[in-house]
Amino acid sequence: MRATEGDQLVQHGRVVGQHDKVAEITQVMGKEGTPPYRVRFTDGHEAVCSPGPDSEIKHKDPMR
C-alpha cells in the first residue's frame, strides 16, 4: 500500500450495517509512501494508522 498526502484512506465497514470511514491522508510517515499515515476523518478526528486489509487508498491523482 502506497499513498501521498491528499489521498483518501477508505476503511470499509467490517459488519453488516457499518458504514465506511473516509479520511484524508495529511502525512505519510513511512518510507516511499508506505504506512503509517496521519489522517483526518470527515468529522475532524485525527489519528495515526497503519491500514489493514479492509482498507484502500483512493489517489487524488487517478493516473497513479
TrEMBL record:
Entries under InterPro entries matching the protein: DUF1918 (IPR015035)
Domain of life: Bacteria
Domain DUF1918: 1-57
Biased composition annotated in UniProt, kind: Basic and acidic residues: 55-64
One Pfam family from the record: DUF1918
Region of interest (Disordered), residue spans: 43-64
Transmembrane feature ranges: none
Signal peptide: none
Entry protein name: DUF1918 domain-containing protein
Annotated organism of origin: Streptomyces fagopyri
Record lineage: Bacteria, Bacillati, Actinomycetota, Actinomycetes, Kitasatosporales
